[in-house]
Design brief:
single chain, alpha+beta, Jelly Rolls, 5-stranded antiparallel beta sheet, 4-stranded antiparallel beta sheet, about 45% strand, globular
């Protein structure tokens, strides 16, 4: 019964926060990105872009088991966050996240480059018109970076799980040489 209550609470929280937070005036806490060129910056300001926001709150330990498709578990109280990121065309810094993230690329094209010792560097482009689709996930501890491919500014929505309370969403990582 408790896992059903937690599952319902997480669903209601996510829906409510998305609706309520659309007017928040926060900036993106993602890893720093290189500055856009003056031409790119003028393109971004010419179009009416949505404001970025972050809604963040602590959630007690949970175990959601909706077998066989889904299992989420946390044994610690951690932060859950929902964000809208608005990023001009640029190359992002290499970084990791303390918990998993799920993303939807609503506008633009975002290339995620991942590094692992096993596979080396791999890149996939996401966006509304991309063959890979417009959704992706980031694994906790995985070294990666995002590149917003021009000329359009990217608008992404992210849900972040298991971030230590009040901790940054991203930690800089060394360039793996990709």
């Amino acid at each position: 019964m408790r896992s059903s209550a937690v599952s319902n609470a997480v669903s209601v929280l996510c829906a409510g926060v998305l609706l309520a937070a659309c007017s928040d005036q926060a900036t993106s806490p993602d890893a720093p990105r290189q500055a856009a060129t003056p031409q790119t910056a003028s393109l971004a300001t010419a179009a009416a872009l949505p404001e970025p926001f972050t809604a963040r709150g602590s959630i007690d330990p949970y175990f959601i088991n909706q077998a066989p498709e889904l299992m989420l578990r946390s044994s610690v109280t951690a932060d859950l966050a929902i964000q809208r990121l608005v990023t001009a065309p640029s190359v992002g810094a290499w970084h990791t996240h303390p918990g998993p993230s799920f993303a939807i690329v609503e506008q633009g094209r975002v290339m995620i480059t991942r590094y692992s010792k096993k596979d080396g560097c791999t890149s996939t482009v996401y966006g509304p018109n991309e063959s890979a689709g417009k959704t992706y996930y980031e694994v906790a501890g995985e070294v990666h970076r995002a590149t917003v491919l021009g000329p359009e500014t990217a608008v992404e929505y992210k849900v972040r799980f298991n971030t230590p309370i009040g901790a940054p969403f991203a930690t800089p990582a060394a360039d793996p040489g990709c």
